[in-house]
Amino acid sequence: MLLRTRFYIPPVKPEHLLRSGLIERLQNTQGSQLVLISAPAGYGKTTLVSQWLHTYSQSFAWLIVDSQQALAEVFWQHIIGALQTIIADIGQQALAVLPTQGIEAAVISLLNDLDRLDIAQESDHAYTLVMDDFHKAESDEILSSLNLFLDHLPPSLRIVMTVRQDPKLALARRRANGQLIELQQADLAFNAKECQDFLQKKLQTNISLDIAQQVSLATEGWVTGIQLSAMSSLEGIPKDKNLNRDMADYLFEEVFSQQPQPLQDFLLFSACVEKFCPALTNSLCNIEHSYHVIKELEVANLFIIALDNHRSWYRYHDLFRQFLQLHFQTLSQQQQQALHLTAANWFEENGYYELAFQHGLILKDWCRCEQLFNNIVQEKIDLGLNNSFFYLLEKLPSNIAESVSKKASKAFNIPFMAAPNSIPAANSIPAANSIPVANSSASQSKTASTQRDIDDLTQPLIEPLTKRETEVMALVQKGLSNKDIAEQLFISLNTLKVHIRNLYGKMGVKNRTQALLLIHPKG
Asked: Do 118 and 79 sit in the same domain of this protein?
């Protein structure tokens, strides 16, 4: 006997914001289509579908999917049971053959019933079958039989699924043939206006659009985060981007605790960096398959966000990373230090000096910070960003900042202030090539000195190539574009340009063609 409450649609609560635009998109779907609503926990997937079905009068069946339906036979019994709430006699033969002839025979029988219904149906409107939280019962046998069902889905029926991760239902093929309609995290996230409307309705008070914008940015549109943030604020209005206890409890119970231990470890270790790529997480986690783990996180919608179109770099949703960092603190001090050291080494070796600097600060490795600061200054000057590195001194203890600024001032001929609390505003710092001098003769002397420095840099291989420059040159020889080289080395395009500029300077050439001719002269 099936539990009838699994077929009950959740009620629409008055405090829930009506998602009119998304509801219209759902209403414009048709029979024989699969509507997939895929997002992490707390993005309002179930609420949205409930609102749609309450807004527009239509025939629908609702099934709350859970782990008890993970067996294919039990799953299809529930599917047929749900359909029978709107079509009383459908699937009778399918239920009869299910125990004796198997899943495939039962699915074919159900499809034949739906086909006869389609022929007899006078209405142009399709029935809707909702599978809420389908991911809870996902199994290979269920996916195989459901793929068969979807491949032959008649116009009389449309399937709507809410999931936390994309199921293996030949989505690429269905997307290409127009059968798949998708709503994802970006679609469900609240914008500033929706956040304002929601908070005003929830808190029964006026909320300015500016405050709503701050809340929307702080939570990245995460609906549950907005609600929990508002509920926990003393004044009813969240003021900052900080994770609160209610959010942490929700993320632990609904997300983190449901992951296997290896994946929990991966999440914790990778949370010590602001952004990550497969090569970096391989080092942090001491594994070689980070690429596949990251793809698994993407499929599972575990609050992970791609930072580029090539999906080379990622970050976590800010509130989720705060949650992970809380649990990161439960690791031993030795393990935390080791992870930060690994991150610092990797970033430095790959030319991400500012990110390496951040981990040097955490490690209180002032010698490393000084060297990295010099690298950053050189990199910024080479890029023409002469005033964009002074803020780093503010992060250092005053005595260390004083020492670092004096040495950098001498090395780069730039007037640094001695103490971080007296650093001038960026726009008050003259550019490196326009620093005022005492008199014209000094100016001429400096100009001559600068020209000599430039001439020196044009001498071939004035100093050996670094390991990274050697790697870059090897890929240049292979004919790879700058974009391809950056992707292969997991570095930014700007960082690559700095390496290439330094490389050309050491070789005494001005462009790629000259560099290649120097290595492979004609004749």
From this structure: yes
